[in-house]
UniProtKB/TrEMBL annotation:
InterPro entries: DUF4336, RibonucZ/Hydroxyglut_hydro. PANTHER family: METALLO-BETA-LACTAMASE DOMAIN-CONTAINING PROTEIN (PTHR33835:SF1), YALI0C07656P (PTHR33835). Keywords: Membrane, Transmembrane, Transmembrane helix. This is DUF4336 domain-containing protein. The chain crosses the membrane at residues 16-35. It comes from Rhodanobacter denitrificans. Signal peptide: none annotated.
Length: 248
């Protein structure tokens, strides 16, 4: 697999703001434009008011990471934000059997097609469940014929949490085919956005997506965390308007 310049240290809790952390993980092989290419991974952890932890897009299990997580508090929620981000939930569920594993639309079918055994306990919906209502806002980003992604806002810190709706790969961290693939997909920093193949799935349905973007902007986030590539610690509103200009 082509090497990437990863966001080291890996498997380490990195504070974003009070009560929210990111964890950069190893690469995973994902399908992109007909190829199997390596992608860096990143999960987000939020401490809820009851002390429980909300884990967005859990990365590959790691013993040291589990110890650090345990020191933060009990894991209550394991969240699959879209049908591509679920593969490690089964391992986290084995470690934290009392946590609720939340399914995104189509993820059960996707897991079955990939022969990955994972059990989900509940389904994400348009409104946040009582478990985190008042702490984390959520929105089902509609318009794609293929994939609906849930986006979240940690209200206390003003942190918007995205997964694949923006990918922002830094050229210096890419090698070999990933360089031309990222350029072709339109996901190179500083102009990262949804990859071109995903954008095509919104044709004829951009009106729905624009309404979702308007709601995201109404939240007025201060920063944007991404699953792949350089995230945006500031200027969130400007970055969102730039990254979603393809909806105009």
């Amino acid at each position: 697999m082509t090497e990437l310049g990863l966001y080291t240290p890996l498997n380490t809790l990195k504070p974003v703001a009070a009560g929210i952390w990111i964890v950069d993980g190893p690469v995973v092989a994902m399908a992109a434009l007909g190829l199997r290419m390596p992608f860096p991974t990143r999960m987000t952890v939020v401490r809820l008011p009851d002390g429980g932890l909300w884990c967005h897009s859990p990365i590959a299990p790691d013993a040291d990471l589990f110890e650090a997580i345990d020191a933060l508090g009990p894991v209550h929620h394991l969240v699959s934000p879209n049908l591509l981000h679920y593969a490690h939930i089964a391992a986290w569920k084995r470690r934290y059997p009392h946590a609720t594993a939340w399914a995104s639309p189509g993820v059960r079918q996707r897991a079955a097609s990939q022969r990955i055994e994972v059990h989900f306990d509940a389904d994400l919906d348009d409104a946040p469940p009582p478990d985190w209502a008042g702490s984390i806002e959520q929105l089902r980003f509609r318009g794609s014929r293929v994939m609906q992604e849930f986006v979240f806002l940690h209200g206390a810190s003003g942190t918007l949490i995205l997964t694949d709706l923006i990918e922002n790969f830094e050229l210096a961290r890419l090698h070999g085919p990933m360089r031309w693939l990222a350029r072709l997909g339109g996901v190179l920093d500083p102009d990262g956005k949804a990859p071109s193949d995903m954008r095509l799935t919104f044709l004829g349905r951009k009106r729905q997506a624009r309404a979702c973007l308007a709601r995201m902007l109404a939240w007025r986030p201060q920063r944007v965390v991404l699953a792949h590539g350089r995230w945006f610690p500031d200027h969130a509103m400007a970055e969102l308007r730039r990254a979603f200009r393809w909806l105009d």
